Amino acid sequence: MLLAGLCTVDVVQRVADFPAPGEKVQSLAVDVAAGGPATNAAVTVAALGAEATLVTVLGAHPLAALARADLATCGVRVVDLAPGLATPPSVSAVAVRDHDGERTVVSRNAAAQADFPVPEPDLDGVSAVLVDGHHPALALKTARAAKERGVPVVLDAGSWKPVLDELLPLVDVAACSAHFRVPGPSLTARGVPVVITTAGPDPVRWSAGEDSGEVAVPAVAARDTLGAGDVWHGALAFAVAGLGNDVAGWVRHANEVAAERVRHVGPRSWTAAIRELGKGVR
Questions:
Q1: Closest CA to 104 of 119, 92, 115
Q2: Which pLDDT score is estimated for 99?
Q3: Which end of the chain is less packed: N or C, by CB atoms within 10 Å?
Q4: What is the pLDDT of residue 115?
């Protein structure tokens, strides 16, 4: 699978409680890992047992080496579109609350990264692509190439971005949260065949043409919610590639994988636990 979008360096502090303004607290643990929607989705795909190629921007800054090493350990192949970029990669400062796994995130995302050339994506052997829209030119080129090849395009909608006006007609499956707001016509009216809406622990709703439904989310004790949405999207894309047109089956699989993720503490501790969940999909 090919996943195109943002890669950040996440500095994750686990805390007993979030500090008040002006307060200093000591963390219980600290992790450094690669993050970002497409990146965490790529880690998920690899953990489920499929080949995962992440197309992103990292550059030559020393911080980028941290993300690159983490992704290599996770079995993700990285295609860096700006390998000579001297500026730091996007960095996210994350705090995860110990007793319930809730998190806060402060991130610059891709806003400070300069334009870069985007080559034609290599889609040989690719059964699905996922784009997150954080690098607009990359998302558009990837989605157009996939559309021409008949490869399904999954969009991690996240928040509304200007590129979505042009990107949505190329998307086969758009997944968004209940907080996602579309200016003007709905995603369906904009030509997206399958629209899926998550709502945290509440059932996930989906619509595909005249069909629609909802799938319950497994009830688990959440220990760490960081990246859970990204993991859900990666598992969804994995299921789109392996389960035919079974939309309810896609959602059920993604729900199971994300539920397993939140049961584990830390940015990578969950990866081994989801391997079995991929075997019935490929």
A1: 92
A2: 87
A3: C
A4: 67
